[in-house]
């Protein structure tokens, strides 16, 4: 579909509706401003900081899974330590998106060791449209709070098999 552009702005009806629904304050859209509706508790931020610092020194993969509750609070899942991709795949729900903060130790081509901290945006194809929109609107806020260097979107559990290639 070609968008009719005038003065750098699209004039098509679909873009107009998107503008009204997502940006207009009069619509009271839950997705209009991720800074106003999503929140992190002090406990969540504390756990996230602790994970960032402890995972930097770890010799094995570590992951922490986060979800968004009905009141738009971003919280960590109450799970045991996740130290392998197989364990991570088992813990993720089949029909709900999740944010995963992942630290994966790598040896670079020049021999140096690296443990990049990345955000994995798990978005299964069976998730509802509402949950997809809820998580999509919170990505940048979560990425900022987590202090991650890279974002990787994963749609299928099989996509986790080649995650190491995506990290480099």
Low-confidence stretches: 23-29, 31-35
Shape: globular
| Number of discrete domains | 2
Please trace the helix and strand order, writing H or E for each element: EEHHEHEEHEEEEHEH
Radius of gyration: 18 Å
Task: Give the CATH H-level superfamily of the largest domain.
Answer: Severin
- Main-sheet strand order equals 3-5-4-6-9-10
Number of strands: 10
Q: Count of helices? A: 6
- The CATH class designation of the largest domain is Alpha Beta
Protein name: Glia maturation factor beta
Pfam family, one: Cofilin_ADF
GO molecular function: actin binding; Arp2/3 complex binding
Keywords: Signal
Notable characteristics:
168 residues; 6-stranded mixed β-sheet; alpha+beta; 23% strand; 2 domains; two-stranded antiparallel sheet; single chain; Severin
Summarize the topology.
Elements: E1 5-6, E2 9-10, H1 13-23, H2 34-37, E3 39-40, H3 42-55, E4 62-68, E5 73-76, H4 85-91, E6 98-103, E7 106-107, E8 113-114, E9 117-122, H5 129-146, E10 150-154, H6 163-167
Overview of this protein structure:
- This protein is an alpha+beta fold and 168 residues long.
- It has 2 domains: 1-32, no CATH class; 39-167, Severin, CATH 3.40.20.
- It has 6 helices and 10 strands.
- The chain has helices at residues 13-23, 34-37, 42-55, 85-91, 129-146, 163-167; strands spanning 5-6, 9-10, 39-40, 62-68, 73-76, 98-103, 106-107, 113-114, 117-122, 150-154.
- The strands form 3 sheets. It has a 6-stranded mixed beta sheet with strand order 3-5-4-6-9-10. Strands 1-2 form a two-stranded antiparallel sheet.
- The radius of gyration is 18 Å and the shape is globular.
- The two termini are 35 Å apart.
- The model is unreliable at 23-29 and 31-35 (pLDDT under 50).
- GO terms for molecular function: actin binding; Arp2/3 complex binding.
- One of its GO terms (cellular component) is actin cortical patch.
- Residues 34-168 form the ADF-H domain.
């Amino acid at each position: 579909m070609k968008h009719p552009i005038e003065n750098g702005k699209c004039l098509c009806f679909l873009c107009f509706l998107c503008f009204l629904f997502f940006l207009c304050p009069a619509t009271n859209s839950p997705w209009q401003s991720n800074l106003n509706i999503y929140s992190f508790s002090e406990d969540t931020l504390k756990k996230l900081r602790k994970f960032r610092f402890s995972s930097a020194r770890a010799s094995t993969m570590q992951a922490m899974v986060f979800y968004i509750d009905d009141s738009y609070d971003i919280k960590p899942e109450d799970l045991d330590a996740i130290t392998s991709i197989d364990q991570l795949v088992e813990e993720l729900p089949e029909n709900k998106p999740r944010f995963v903060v992942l630290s994966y130790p790598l040896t670079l081509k020049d021999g140096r060791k690296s443990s990049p901290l990345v955000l994995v945006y798990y978005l299964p194809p069976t998730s509802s449209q509402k949950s997809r929109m809820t998580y999509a609107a919170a990505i940048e806020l979560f990425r900022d709070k987590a202090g991650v260097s890279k974002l990787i979107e994963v749609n299928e559990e099989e996509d986790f098999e080649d995650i190491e290639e995506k990290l480099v």
